[in-house]
Amino acid sequence: MTKHLHRPRGASTGLRMGSPSPLARALALVMLSAPLSLGMAPAALAAGDQPELRRGASVTLNFMNAEIDAVARAVATLTGRNVVVDPRVKGTINLVSTNPVTPGEAVQMFVQQLRTQGFAMVFANGLYTVVPEAEAKLQTGSVSAGKVPAAGGQIITQIFRLNHESAANLVPVLRPLISPNNTINVSPSTNALIITDYADNLQRIARIVGTLDVNNATSVEVIKLRHAVASDLAPVIMRLVESGGNGNLPTASPAAGSAPGAQVNIAAAAPASGADTAYRTTLMPEPRSNSLILRAANAAKAAQVRDLIAKLDQPAESNSGYMGGNIHVVHLKNADAAKLAVTLRAALASLPGANASGTGTAGAQQGVANTGANVGAGVVPANASAGMTGNTGASGSISTGPTINAASNNQPSTGGQIQADPSTNSIIISAPEPVYRQLRAVIDRLDERRAQVYIEALIAEVNDSLDADFGVQLQAVLGNAVAIGTNFNNGTSTNLLQLAAAAAAYGNNGSSTNLNNLGSVLPGPGTNMIGGVDFGSGNKLGVLANFLQTSGAGNVLSRPTLLTLDNEEARIVVGQNVPFVTGSYTTTSNSSTNPFQTYERQDVGLTLRVRPQISEDGTVKLVIYQEASSLQSGTTASGYITNKRSIESSVVVDDGSIVVLGGLMQDTYSESEDKVPVLGDVPIVGNLFKSRSRTGSKSNLMVFLRPVVLRDGYQADEFSQGRYQEMQTHQRASQPRPSVSTPVNRSAVLPDLPPRPIPESTSKLVVDPANSVTPAPSRQPLKPTPPAALPTAPYGADYSPSSRTSGTGPSERYDPSLYVN
Question: Which residues belong to any copy of the NolW-like domain (predicted)?
Answer without folding.
Answer: 157-215, 220-317, 328-452
